[in-house]
Amino acid sequence: MKIRRSNERGYADHGWLRSYHTFSFANYMDPNHMGYRALRVINEDRVAPGHGFGAHPHRDMEIISYVLEGEMEHKDNMGNGEVMRPGDVQRMSAGTGVLHSEFNHSKENGLHFLQIWVETAQRGIQPSYEQKHFPTAERQGQWRLVLSPDGRDGSVSVNQDMNLYASLLGAGDQVAAPPSRYAWLHVVKGAVEVNGETLATGDAAAFTPDEPFELTCTDASEVLLFDLA
User: What start and end residues bound the annotated signal peptide (predicted)?
Assistant: First the structure.
């Protein structure tokens, strides 16, 4: 198990935006943390009320958004326009090119979300978009599949050989890892114990295929688990 501590991440403060970078991104460059397998970006962003990212382009990348607090307004040149809230998972396959914007939908409250980039399995595909809501009850005390290559079990589909699981845990809850190959565990909030190590908010850990683990929650937590080829 290789641990990536929250306070080791890159950080950028743009006033209206405060962002922590798990992997190298923009002006933060660390050759030891360029990504993990197909996982390329995990940015934890806090956006001030009434602010956001104006229209900007992407291509040949799977872009996943996961809202933690507040409301995020999404618009793109494919004609999609939705507001994301906690429990929503959004995937945008940039493919041959897409233009989109992301704004804090509220003029009073902050927005806190994760933006995740995953390398695409096939370049030059037609851009596409999908968003689904996963109720608290489906994630409470268990792993809920929220992203998969084939959209199975009601998950959002993604153009890569990977699965993403989400879980909400109460103190004392224990969950074994779902079947995985290479795994990346990201603690969204709270604190958990894994293989004798405590992981707190923003911490992450990487696992190899022959490395089983069990997770015990020590404080009310939200965690994401990436299963990667």
Answer: none
* CB distance 169 to 191 below 8 Å: no
| pLDDT digit string, tens, across residues 6-33 | 999 999 999 999 999 999 999 999 999 9
Statement: residue 188 has pLDDT above 90: yes
Say whether pLDDT at 179 is over 90.
no
pLDDT at 177: 87
Secondary structure of 120-180 as H, E, C letters: CCCCCCCCEEEEEECCHHHHECCCEEEEECCCHHHCEECCCCEEEEEEEECCCCEEECCCC
- Paired residues of 81 in beta bridges: 75
Residues near 6 by beta carbon (within 8 Å), at least 6 away in sequence: 20, 200, 201, 202, 203
Contact 184, 145 (CB under 8 A): no
Task: Identify the pLDDT of residue 42.
Answer: 98
- Give percent of the chain above pLDDT 90: 96
pTM over 0.85: yes
